[in-house]
Amino acid sequence: MTPAAAVSLAAGHPGFLSPTGVEIAFLLVGLVTFGAALVTVTTRQLVHAALWLVVALGGLAVEYLLLTAEFIAWVQVLIYVGSVVVLLLFGLMLTKAPIGRSPDADSGNRWAALTVAVAAAVALVWVVVDAFRTTWIDLNGPAAGSTHVTGESLFRTWVLPFEALSVLLLAALVGAIVLSRKATADTASGGTAPVEAPPTAPGEKEGAR
Amino acid sequence: MHLAYPAVLSALLFCTGLYGVLARRNAILVLMSVELMLNAVNLNLVAFDVWLSRAAKETLHSGQALTLFTIAIAAAEIGIGLAIVLAVHRNRGTADIDKLRDTAEGPGTGGSGIEDPGSSAAEKAEATA
């Protein structure tokens, strides 16, 4: 498309220099989210990384609300902020992560990683802006992602994938339990006292971990 | 709202997660970066779904359904990933992915596993387990 055609196509929409209130809010929350994500991947304190991840994921929930996807926003708050970050914190504690600053949080190839990430960011942002600078989301009218709309589409069109997903979640749960329990069972049976090992022995192992 | 705003934010978040996956050394921090990348994809899906639900009259809301599926799969992934990391930490005593070089190829990596007594002991313990 020629530049003139692009300009005429964009003329029907507000430009980037006169943002609406929703856009300003989106931009501010987006800056907070991006900053929190940057701190998450660069901080040397492992627990702080998990806590900044909460800020980034909560900011994303606010972005979903601004995009009128209410149900996704609350699911994000429930699952990510509520359970995934708690799981990550448990993992950090169970692997005896250092509480203070750990000097070896970043590996030696961080400059190569930075080069790759910046190159990917530049390429992606350039392509995305070039492709969608004239596209306008109309946020007026009824919400596109209210619980009614999402539930209707989920249980009319996407029932089979939804049920398959529940099976996948069950399989993942069982797999996680098997992965977590295998070593303790083997240690209990491969130890010096296999017969007299009471059911308290795995419990003690759990506590010791 | 311009579609470029959520798209650019999603691209930046994805590249942040990419940097974290490549540069971090602790396995749990790598998992956090993977979560960031998945969330960037979710934001893209939601933004395009909202745009398409306005642009087209008949829509299946596939973007939001896919976002819910991605969130559920991410929850499953973090559970399995943490179980694996905990198992590795129990066997090796470390969650440092730079030290897990048993299947690494190339020069200089084969000798370190043999010379390191702790690593060989851990391998023996794992073989007997």
Automatic annotation (TrEMBL), chain A:
Membrane-spanning parts: 24-42, 49-67, 73-99, 111-129, 158-179
UniProt-annotated location(s): Cell membrane
Main subcellular location of this protein, as a coarse class: membrane
Group of enzyme by EC: translocase
GO molecular function, one term: NADH dehydrogenase (ubiquinone) activity
Pfam families: Oxidored_q3
Topology of this chain in the membrane: Multi-pass membrane protein
E.C. designation(s): 7.1.1.-
Protein family: Belongs to the complex I subunit 6 family.
UniProt function note: NDH-1 shuttles electrons from NADH, via FMN and iron-sulfur (Fe-S) centers, to quinones in the respiratory chain. Couples the redox reaction to proton translocation (for every two electrons transferred, four hydrogen ions are translocated across the cytoplasmic membrane), and thus conserves the redox energy in a proton gradient.
Name of this chain's protein: NADH-quinone oxidoreductase subunit J
Species annotation: Streptomyces filipinensis
TrEMBL record, chain B:
GO biological process: one example: ATP synthesis coupled electron transport
InterPro entries per the UniProt record, alphabetical: NADH_UbQ_OxRdtase_chain4L/K, NUOK/Mnh_C1-like
Annotated region described as Disordered, given as residue ranges: 98-129
Top-level taxonomic group: Bacteria
Catalyzed reactions per annotation: a quinone + NADH + 5 H(+)(in) = a quinol + NAD(+) + 4 H(+)(out)
Protein name listed in UniProt: NADH-quinone oxidoreductase subunit K
Annotated compartments: Cell membrane; Membrane
Transmembrane helix keyword on record: yes
UniProt lineage: Bacteria, Bacillati, Actinomycetota, Actinomycetes, Kitasatosporales
Entry similarity comment: Belongs to the complex I subunit 4L family.
Keywords: Cell membrane, Membrane, NAD, Quinone, Translocase, Transmembrane, Transmembrane helix, Transport
Transmembrane segments: 66-88
Source organism: Streptomyces filipinensis
Gene Ontology terms, MF aspect: NADH dehydrogenase (quinone) (non-electrogenic) activity; quinone binding
